Amino acid sequence: MSSTPTDFQGCISDALRAAIEQRIPHSRAAVATVNGGGNGHFSIDVTSPAFAGLSMLESQWLVYVAIGHLLQGSASPVRAVDSLQTRAPARVGPGFTRHACPPAIEAQQTTGRRT
Question: What is the pLDDT of residues 3-16, one digit of tens each?
Fold first, then answer.
């Protein structure tokens, strides 16, 4: 990590949420401080249709790319992400359903047959 201090000012939780929701399409992020806050440790939960079909590692990588600028430098506002949950929603919007599992698996679950 760089030793260059960050010029960040403001609420870190809000900055994390905003960075995620701006970089990951149609995402909703919930960010909480860990151990009462003030120590730079956070818990993050993100739901986005962009995660459909991705592995857990791939989904989490997208989140780390989105918040990377808040993790860089020895004086960064975020010291650690203690918990990171990512998931694809079952329902994305009016009249449109997006499934978290691949269609072949879903077909097997509903019909009992492999496709």
Answer: 334 555 678 899 99
